[in-house]
Amino acid sequence: MNPWLVLLIPVLPGVSAALLALFGSRLPYNAIGGLASASVAGSLAIVLSFCGAGIFGAGQPVDFDAGPWISTQAFQAGLHLRLDSVSLCMCLLVTFFGFLITVYSIGYMRHDSEQGRFFASLNLFVASMLTLVLADNLVLIFLGWEGVGLCSYLLIGHYWEQEDVPLAAYRAFFVNRIGDVFFLLGVFSIFSLFGTVSLSELAAHGPALAHIHSGKAAMAAFFLLGGAFAKSAQAPLHVWLADAMAGPTPVSALIHAATMVTAGVYLLARLDWLYAVSPEARFIIAVCALVTLVLGAVLAMVQTDIKKILAYSTLSNLALMFLALAAGSTGAGMLHLFGHAFFKALLFLAAGSVIVAAHHEQDVRNLRGVLKKLPITNIAFLIGCIGGAGLIPYLAAGFFSKEAVLGAIEEAEFSGFGITLSGRVVHAIVVAVETLSVIYLFRLYGYLRSDATGPAFPKPAHGNHALAGNGANSAHGADASHAHGGANHGGDIKERSPAIQAVLALLILAAPIFGVLSASPAFSFLGKGLVWSAITGGADEPVGVTLAQALPFLIVNIVLAGLVFAAFSNTKRREALLGRLKGLKLGAYGPLARKFYFDDVYAALIVVPLKGAAYLSRLVLENIFTGIITVTGWLGRGFSLGLRRLQTGKAHQYAIGVLLAVFLLAFYLGGH
C-alpha cells in the first residue's frame, strides 16, 4: 500500500476545514454539507482500502515518514504516521462515526446561521483526532491533542450568543489546558529518561529501561495521567463534560462517541508498558475511575435534560475503560471504547432527532410520549438503551465489552502506596453501580414513551425555558434557541430530516453487527474473535463469561429495566414514585443538586482566590500608577512654575543673570 495514502487520511478533512473556513460563508448550504461529508467519506474509503492489506492483528504496519519535523542537536520529532492494527481500528471508528455525524448534521443544522463555521470546525475535529491516532511520536500526538481541544472549544461554543454557552466552552478549554500542562511535562519526562518520543521505539526498548529507572518512569506516568484524565473527563477533572452539552447535539455525539473523550484512553493504551512498571499510577487510575463511575451513574439518575443524562452516562462508561486499563487489560478497555461508541452514538443522535422533532425541547418532563410519533427514532433509542445497559447479548453493542471489563477487573489486584484493593471487591462495586445504568436509561426511555400525549408545540420563546432550571440543568438551552436560527417551527411532532433518519437506520443495523463481532469465545457462535484481535494487535482473547454465568444477571437486569420502564411510562405510577423521592436531592445544597460539590470545591480553592488576587492586584496597580502619574504631574507643574518665574521680560534681571553665570563659570575654571 502507498504510504502517501496514510497522510491523506487526516489531510482530506483538514483541507476541507480550511476551504470551509475561508469560503463557507459564500457557498450554498448543500455544498457546505456535501464538501464536509465527502472529505470524511474520502478518509473512510482510504481506511477501508487498508483493511485488506494484512495490517489487522500482528500484521506489518504501513508508515509515512517525512523525516524530522522538529530537530535540534539533542531532540528529534519526526513527521511520522504509522497505521498498525490498533490505529487502523481507531481510524475506522473516527471516520465511520465522523462521516455519519457529518451527514446527520446536514439535516440537523439546516437552519443554523453559521453553517460554514460549524462544518469547518467539525472537519477540523475529525482531522485532529485522526492525526492523534496515527501519530508515531508524542509531540505529533500533542498536535492532534491540541487540535481536538481547540475544536471542542469552538463547537461547544458554537451558539456563542447564548448567555451560558461561552462560559461552558471556556470551562472545557480551561480544564483541558490544565491537562495539557501535565501532558507536556510527561513528554519532557519521557524524553529525558528514554531519549526518544517515538511510540514504536519506546514500545521496543522502553520496558527494559523503565524497570531500571522505575521512579522516573512513574513520574512520567503520573504526568501523562493528568493529561489523560482531563481529556477523558475522569475525576477530579471531569467537571467540563456536562457543560459540553451546550453545543449542538451532533457535536455531543462526536465528542462522546469517537473523538475527544476517547483520546485519553487511547494514549494510556498505547503506553500500557509504562504503567505496567508503575503500580502506584495504576492504583490512582483505579481509584479515580471508581469515583467517576459512581458520580456518573448517580448524577445521571437525577438529571432532567435529555443530553445531560447521556453525558453523565458517558462519564460512567469512560470510568469502565480506565478500570480495565488499571487492571492491565488494554484489550478490554479498547473493546469497551468501541462498544460504547456504537450505543452512545445511537443514543445521542436519537436524542437529537427527538429535540428537532419536538421543536428543541430538551427537558424529559416535557417530552412525555414523544417517541410514539417517531418510529425510527424509537427503535434507535431502544437499541441504544439496550446497548448501554448491556441487556441482550449480540443485540447490545455494549454487552460483551462490559463483560470483558468486568472479567479483567475480577482477576486483577490494585496495589499502591501500601494499600491493596481486591479485584473481587472492585468487581462487586462496579456490578452494583452498573445496575444503575439500567435504571437511568430506562427511566429516560419511559419518559419518552409515556402514556401522556406530550407537550403542546410550538412553545412561545422556545429558547428561554431551557435556562430556567437549577444549576444542574440550566445549560441546555443553546440547541433550543439557535439550532434552527430561532425560527418558529409549528406543526406536529414528527421525524423531519431524511439525513437524520438514514443515519439512525444505519446505526440500528451497525450496533448489533458489532455486538456479534465482539462476542467472547465462550459466547461466540462464530468463534473468530475478530474485533478483539484487531484492536489488540493479535493478542489472545480471554474465554470470557459463559451464558450460564451471565444468565442470572441478565434476567435481573431485564426485569429491572421492565419495572423502571413500567414506572416511568405511566403517569400515575411515575408521579407516585417521584413524590416519594422528592427529598432525594436534599434541597438546593444537597450532594446531588450540587453535583457532589466538585464545582463548589473548585470555586473555593481556585476561583475565589484568583478573583481575590485579581482584585488586590488591581488595587495595588491602580494606586501605584495613580501615585506615579500624580507625583509626576506635581513635579512637572513645579518645574514649569520655576521656569515661568525666570521669564520676567526685564532686561536688567537678564543682565544680572548672565553676569552671575559668567562669574560662576570663571570661579569653576579658576579652581582647575
Q: For the CA atoms, what is the radius of gyration?
A: 30 Å
Unreliable parts: 456-478, 480-490
Strand content range: under 5%
Structure summary, number of beta strands: 4
| Helical amount | 55-70%
Domain module tally: 2
Main structural class: mainly alpha
Give helix and strand order, one letter per element, not per position.
Answer: HHEEHHHHHHHHHHHHHHEEHHHHHHHH
Largest sheet: 2 strands, antiparallel
Largest sheet: spatial strand order: 1-2
The general outline is: globular
Number of helices: 24
* Span of the ends, CA to CA: 93 Å
What is the average of the pLDDT values?
87
Keywords:
4 strands; two-stranded antiparallel ribbon; 24 helices; about 65% helix; mainly alpha; 2 domains; about 675 residues
Task: Note down, in words, how this protein is organized.
The protein is mainly alpha-helical and 672 residues long. It has 2 domains: 3-484 and 493-593, no CATH class; 606-670. 67% of the residues lie in helices and 4% in strands. It has helices spanning 3-23, 29-50, 85-108, 115-134, 138-156, 165-194, 199-212, 214-231, 249-257, 260-270, 272-276, 279-302, 306-326, 330-357, 375-389, 399-411, 423-448, 478-482, 498-517, 530-536, 547-568, 571-580, 598-646, 651-670; strands at residues 62-71, 76-83, 413-416, 419-422. The strands form 2 sheets. A two-stranded antiparallel sheet has the order 1-2. A hairpin with a 2-residue loop joins strand 3 and strand 4 (419-422). Helix 13 packs antiparallel against helix 14 (330-357).
